[in-house]
Amino acid sequence: MDLIINNLSKTYPNGVKALDNISLTIPTGMFGLLGPNGAGKSTLMRTIATLQEPDSGSINLDDIDVLVHKHELRKVLGYLPQEFGVYPSVSAIDLLNHMAVLKGVSNGKERKELVLALLERVNLYDHRKKAVSGYSGGMKQRFGIAQALIGNPKLIIVDEPTAGLDPGERNRFYNLLSEIGENVIVILSTHIVDDVKELCSNMAIINDGKLLYNGTPLAATNALEGKIWEKVISKNELPQYQKDFTVISTKLVTGKPLIHVLNENDPGNGFKRVPVNLEDVFFTNIMGHVESLIEA
Ligand code: ADP
C-alpha cells in the first residue's frame, strides 16, 4: 500500500504558500514528516485527512482518489489532530463509545468490546472511568491514539503528537506507536528530530511548503558523513564563526556554545569530526532557520 502525493500546492488567502508543489510517496510503515513550526506539516496532514482542499495536485491511497472520494478515504483513516480542542468532562469509556458510534460501529456489543480493547491497548483501562479532560498530556495523546484506531484504519495520521509531553510520557507514546500494525501507513508529523530517529523507517523534511528531503534517515545521515565538525567556543566568538563557517547548529553545553559546522574538509582550528546525527541533517536542510529552532 502506498500513499502517493503529486504536485500538491496550497496558498492561503493571506498569500502564505503553505504547500509548494509537494510530491511524495509514502509506503507502509512509520513515516516521519519533519519540519520546523510553520513548515506546512499541518496543512499537508489536514489535506490528506480530507479536512481542507489544496489548490492543485492529487493524492491517491492505492485505488482511492483521495480528493475526489473523500468518504472512501475517511473510512480507512485514523487521525490524531494537532489540537483536539477541549475534551468534555465525560469518562474515557463514554467518550470513546460515542466516537465509535460516529465512526459507524453500530452493533452495541461489538462496540463495547472494541472500546474496552482499545483502552486496554493504549494502557488507559485502569483510568477508563475518569474524565478525559482531567488526563495528563501523555494520557490524552494515548486516548487520541485509541480513537484514531477505531475501525481498523489503513492510514493513520498523527500531527505533532509529542509536543508538550515529558520524557516518560513521550517514551510510552513511542512504544505505543511502534506497536501499531506493520501493515498500515502511519504518518508522524513533528518538529522533534528524536521522534523520527526513534520511530521512522522513512522520512521527509519540509520547510516553507517545499520538500527538501525524502528517503531513509540512514541515507540522510550517510550523505553528510565526514562533513560535520564540532567545537566548543565562547559566546562572543559566535558571530565570527558564523561568518567564517557554515554553522548549522548551536547548542549550549554547560553555558558555552557547542557549534556544529558543515565542511567538506577539516576546518582545523580545533574542530573535531563527529558522527552525523539526524539533527545535523535537519539543520543542514533548513539552514537559515537555525536560530528559531534552537529551543526545539
Ligand atoms: P506546521 O504544521 O508545519 O507548523 P502549518 O501548515 O500549520 O505548518 O502552517 C504553514 C504556514 O501556513 C504557516 O506560515 C502558517 O502561518 C500558515 N497558515 C496555516 N494555516 C493558515 C490559515 N488557515 N490561514 C492562513 N495562513 C495559514
How does this model look, in words?
The protein is of the alpha/beta class and 296 residues long. The protein has two domains: 2-221, 3-Layer(aba) Sandwich (Rossmann fold), CATH 3.40.50; 224-295, no CATH class. It contains eleven helices and 14 strands. The protein has helices spanning 41-48, 70-75, 92-102, 108-121, 137-148, 167-179, 193-199, 217-224, 238-244, 278-285, 290-293, and strands spanning 2-11, 17-27, 29-34, 56-61, 64-65, 77-80, 155-159, 185-190, 202-207, 210-215, 228-232, 246-253, 256-262, 272-273. The protein has a six-stranded mixed sheet, sandwiched between helices. Strand 9 and strand 10 (210-215) form a beta hairpin. The longest helix is centred in the middle third of the chain and has 14 residues, at 108-121. The protein binds adenosine-5'-diphosphate. The site of adenosine-5'-diphosphate (ADP) has 12 residues, from helix 1.
In whole angstroms, how far apart are the ends?
33 Å
| Structural class by secondary-structure content | alpha/beta
Domain count: the total is 2
Strand line-up of the largest beta sheet: 6-7-8-3-9-10
> Which range does the strand content fall in?
25-35%
Element-level helix/strand string = EEEHEEHEHHHEHEHEEHEHEEEHH
